[in-house]
């Protein structure tokens, strides 16, 4: 206790142990509690699956494979702590120094609760190689990972509510081991986003594997990854009446004291209002099932109330199917066409309108009984049209409630915790948005041209009705893309130049040449003017120097150089390299006067 800073709390409890024992005794006498369990509130005492005694208590946690290289390495580290792996013993019969791997949850082990303290102070926990987490909180994530493998689902995965950072890290670790699984999108973090990201970084989870969102799932901003998501793990807030270890849940949530106080209150009023929880659960499921690309959903709650479990599932599935049926009927209901394809009124209708205008007085004088008879006749025709129309809702638009046995292929419901409710909701016909499916959709929309003309008769094969129906349904989920093949196949300017033997001049290049010639002539003129000014200046300087040095003037020669129009650097001198200047008194005086 001194190492972890709890020595002061221990000393305070030792000093007050007599007063605490007396207080507990008075509570037992006043409540006629023969055992300590009878001191618990009634709504917690009767909760199924909760164990409040130390005898036979089981602790659980998961192995962080991002920090642990292999299973044998973890077994060796556990053997150093004198904890041995046992393969034949069931979870309920574990000894203090034995542990077993969970049959349903990957990477998870179960051990005796008395071995928790020994493992908690080890390097495995300090180095984030082993994470303590209640087994019931990992059942939904494990079922989701198994469903992705079996159904070969692809795309990002949505976590509607993050239960705890440890739970999010466990799900991200499972998805990282699946090849076709996409990024994890965790919502509902709120103000703890930085804390969650820091904890996931310590676990070894990268931003390419998991992205945290502060917003709720039902009010999240639209993004490409969210639209591509096909799998959802819905974990909305619940009453948590089925949690086995409430303290462990509060610790896993980062020390959620409010949750601990609400679950251990004397009455059930401490828990959030039931209608608020039910409303959020229904809105979360409704929003997820109405997304067009969602194919599979797992609903996980830790409660034993039917209103949050079975009743909620059947109500949401019925609502989603009813909404899908109404939408399909509205889109495919045959309507009376009063306009032609060109958007003009047909001639027959024009003649009828003209006749009606001519006999308007006759219609005004007609009795009200006849008008009601005509309206009633039209309504009967509409009803008859609805009855005769054979409307079949495709299975890809409808949802159904599945079982966990369909995912694992065997009876595994008995392995679930009694306080954990997991429901599987999937489409009756699931679509896989892989590369092959997208190619088929592109072919059906004509992006690769007319497939019937390009194919040989030998290569033609009949498309199954299920695939044809799936392709027809998928057209509504995507935008209608119209590509002009003739415009794409039109010859380009480069192709025309290569196709002809005679080279064609480029107009743009010709304009550049003309502009360069004009610029060159201007530069030459400016350079010549500049050279002339320099020659005069150098000649005057030469004459002035010759006056002061008359002895050297006889051997002196004047050199005139030119300049490059582009670089403005002096070039070689003229062909007449030496220009002798004869000294005449009048010319010298004129030069001096000019200066």
UniProtKB/TrEMBL annotation:
<dbReference type="GO" id="GO:0032259">
    <property type="term" value="P:methylation"/>
</dbReference>
<keyword id="KW-0808">Transferase</keyword>
<dbReference type="InterPro" id="IPR042620">
    <property type="entry name" value="NSUN7"/>
</dbReference>
<keyword id="KW-0489">Methyltransferase</keyword>
<feature type="region of interest" description="Disordered">
    <location>
        <begin position="349"/>
        <end position="368"/>
    </location>
</feature>
<dbReference type="InterPro" id="IPR029063">
    <property type="entry name" value="SAM-dependent_MTases_sf"/>
</dbReference>
<protein>
    <submittedName>
        <fullName>NSUN7 methyltransferase</fullName>
    </submittedName>
</protein>
<dbReference type="GO" id="GO:0008168">
    <property type="term" value="F:methyltransferase activity"/>
</dbReference>
């Amino acid at each position: 206790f001194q190492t972890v800073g709890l020595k002061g709390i221990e000393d305070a409890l030792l000093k007050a142990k007599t007063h605490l024992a007396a207080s507990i005794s008075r509570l037992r006498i006043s409540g006629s509690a023969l055992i300590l369990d009878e001191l618990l509130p009634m709504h917690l005492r009767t909760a199924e699956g909760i164990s409040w005694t130390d005898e036979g208590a089981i602790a659980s946690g998961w192995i962080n494979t991002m920090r642990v290289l292999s299973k044998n390495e973890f077994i060796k580290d556990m053997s150093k702590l004198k904890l041995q792996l046992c393969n034949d013993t069931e979870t309920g019969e574990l000894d203090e120094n034995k542990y077993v791997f969970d049959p349903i949850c990957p990477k998870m082990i179960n051990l005796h609760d008395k071995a928790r303290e020994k493992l908690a102070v080890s390097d495995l926990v300090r180095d984030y190689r082993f994470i303590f987490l209640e087994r019931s909180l990992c059942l939904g994530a494990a079922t989701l990972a198994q469903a992705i493998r079996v159904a070969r689902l692809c795309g990002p995965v949505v976590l509607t509510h993050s239960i705890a950072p440890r739970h999010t890290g466990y799900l991200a670790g499972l998805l990282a081991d699946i090849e076709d699984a996409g990024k994890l999108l965790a919502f509902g973090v709120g103000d703890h986003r930085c804390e969650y990201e820091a904890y996931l970084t310590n676990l070894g989870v990268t931003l390419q594997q998991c992205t945290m969102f502060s917003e709720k799932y039902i009010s999240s901003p639209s993004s490409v990854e969210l639209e591509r998501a096909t799998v959802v793990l819905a974990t909305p807030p619940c009453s948590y009446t089925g949690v086995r270890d409430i303290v462990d849940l509060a610790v896993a949530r980062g020390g959620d004291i409010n949750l601990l106080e609400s679950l251990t209150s004397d009455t059930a009023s401490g828990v959030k209002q039931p209608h608020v929880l039910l409303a959020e659960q229904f809105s979360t499921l409704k929003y997820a099932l109405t997304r067009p690309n969602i194919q599979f959903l797992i609903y996980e709650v830790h409660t034993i109330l039917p209103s949050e479990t079975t009743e909620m599932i059947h109500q949401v599935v019925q609502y989603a199917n009813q909404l899908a049926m109404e939408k399909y009927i509205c889109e495919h209901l045959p309507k009376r066409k009063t306009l032609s394809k060109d958007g003009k009124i047909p001639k027959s209708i024009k003649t009828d309108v003209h006749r009606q205008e001519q006999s308007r007085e006759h219609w005004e004088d007609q009795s009200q009984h006849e008008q009601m008879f005509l309206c009633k006749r039209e309504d009967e025709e509409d009803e008859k049209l609805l009855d005769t129309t054979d409307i079949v809702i495709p299975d890809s638009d409808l949802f159904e409630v599945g079982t966990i046995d369909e995912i694992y292929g065997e009876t595994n419901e008995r392995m679930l915790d009694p306080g954990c409710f997991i429901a599987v909701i999937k489409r009756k016909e699931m679509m896989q948005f892989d590369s092959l499916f997208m190619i088929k959709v592109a072919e059906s929309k004509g992006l690769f041209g007319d497939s019937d003309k390009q194919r040989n008769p030998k290569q033609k094969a009949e498309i199954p009705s299920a695939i044809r129906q799936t392709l027809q349904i998928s057209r509504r989920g995507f935008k209608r893309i119209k590509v002009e093949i003739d415009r794409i196949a039109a010859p380009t300017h480069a192709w025309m130049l290569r196709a002809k033997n005679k080279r064609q001049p480029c107009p743009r290049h010709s304009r550049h040449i003309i502009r360069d010639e004009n610029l060159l002539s201007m530069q030459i003129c400016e350079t010549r003017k500049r050279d002339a000014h320099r020659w005069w200046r150098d000649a005057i300087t030469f004459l002035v120097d010759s006056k002061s040095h008359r002895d050297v003037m006889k051997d002196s020669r004047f050199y005139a150089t030119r300049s490059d129009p582009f670089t403005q650097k002096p070039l070689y001198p003229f062909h007449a390299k030496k220009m002798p200047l004869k000294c005449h008194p009048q010319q010298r005086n004129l030069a001096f006067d000019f200066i």
